[in-house]
């Protein structure tokens, strides 16, 4: 009798947990009553034939966040759960997390500096309205492109400003000039100088990190010669605000950096909240280099990226 009960309880458990059959369907298959199926399933659990484990992603995220915070000496780590280790899927989830975080922390009188790119555009699209007083939103780098590739530069600053019921402050220039003298002359313009200074004064900076891979957005915008692109690919690890750095977080071409318009990377270290929003396997090296350079004190990413950064 006990052997028969064991056989029936294991068979009921297989049908219920592995084949997703309902208790009534199992009763018909086994030729027993529905209450008997319920007792068989309970017996299977009591005897250890069935072991149920519940995975709570939030618990794992909390552990990963603490480890990342300690490893990279960050003030805050916000991790979100992505169901797939896929770049577009990850971008969808981290941008939502970033939009919620920015919405929560923004206060009256903040100066919020933003950059551009597809990740930042995804963040801006999901930022909910929050009426505040005295907030300013400013571009941290030039946003005019030589290419038909969309950087979403103006749209991003406009969306963020709209969410906080304020006016956008644009930096209507190319992000990289061909000539350092021309760039320096343009920066002396009173209006341009005021926008750049507002970026320096921003207490919140929100940015992503670019790669030095062939398909990187900046490489598709026509700013660099073939030789310059090869130099950056060879010696660089990534960019923030279109300023390229190596694996240690140090500027990898002073000449190109001198032609770049916008906030200096050193200024990001001074921000009350310097928020890096980035994730995905293709950006691991760039994120790690950015954290090595201490350019962010807040990281918003996903569990797959977090695990890779800790490895």
From TrEMBL:
Residues 63-311 form the Sugar-binding domain. Transmembrane segments: none annotated. Residues 19-50 form the HTH iclR-type domain. SUPFAM superfamilies: NagB/RpiA/CoA transferase-like (SSF100950). GO terms for molecular function: carbohydrate binding; DNA binding. Keywords: DNA-binding, Transcription, Transcription regulation. Pfam families: HTH_IclR, Sugar-bind. One of its GO terms (biological process) is regulation of DNA-templated transcription. It comes from the Bacteria. Belongs to the SorC transcriptional regulatory family. This is RNA polymerase subunit sigma-70. It comes from Paenibacillus donghaensis.
């Amino acid at each position: 009798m006990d052997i028969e009960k064991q056989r029936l309880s294991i068979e009921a458990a297989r049908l219920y947990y592995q084949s997703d059959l309902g208790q009534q369907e199992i009763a018909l298959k086994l030729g027993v009553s529905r209450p008997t199926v319920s007792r068989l399933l309970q017996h299977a659990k009591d005897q250890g034939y069935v072991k149920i484990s519940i995975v709570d992603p939030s618990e794992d995220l909390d552990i990963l966040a603490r480890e990342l915070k300690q490893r990279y000496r960050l003030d805050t780590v916000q991790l979100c759960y992505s169901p797939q280790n896929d770049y577009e899927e990850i971008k969808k989830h981290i941008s939502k997390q970033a939009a919620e975080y920015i919405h929560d922390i923004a206060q009256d009188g903040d100066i919020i500096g933003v950059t551009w790119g597809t990740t930042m555009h995804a963040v801006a699209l999901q930022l909910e309205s929050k009426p505040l007083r005295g907030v300013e939103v400013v571009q941290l780098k030039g946003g005019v492109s030589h290419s038909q590739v969309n950087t979403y530069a103006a749209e991003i600053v406009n969306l963020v400003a709209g969410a906080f019921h304020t006016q956008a402050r644009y930096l209507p220039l190319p992000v990289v000039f061909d000539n350092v003298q021309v760039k320096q002359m343009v920066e002396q313009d009173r209006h341009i100088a005021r926008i750049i200074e507002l970026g320096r004064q921003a207490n919140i900076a929100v940015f992503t990190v670019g790669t030095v891979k062939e398909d990187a957005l900046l490489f598709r915008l026509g700013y660099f010669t073939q030789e310059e692109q090869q130099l950056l690919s060879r010696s660089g690890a990534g960019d923030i605000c279109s300023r390229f750095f190596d694996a240690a977080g140090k500027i990898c071409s002073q000449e190109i950096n001198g032609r770049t318009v916008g906030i200096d990377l050193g200024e990001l270290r001074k921000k009350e909240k310097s928020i890096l929003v980035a994730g995905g396997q293709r950006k691991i090296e760039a994120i790690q280099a950015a954290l090595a350079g201490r350019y962010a004190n807040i990281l918003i990413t996903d569990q797959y990226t977090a695990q890779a950064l800790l490895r």
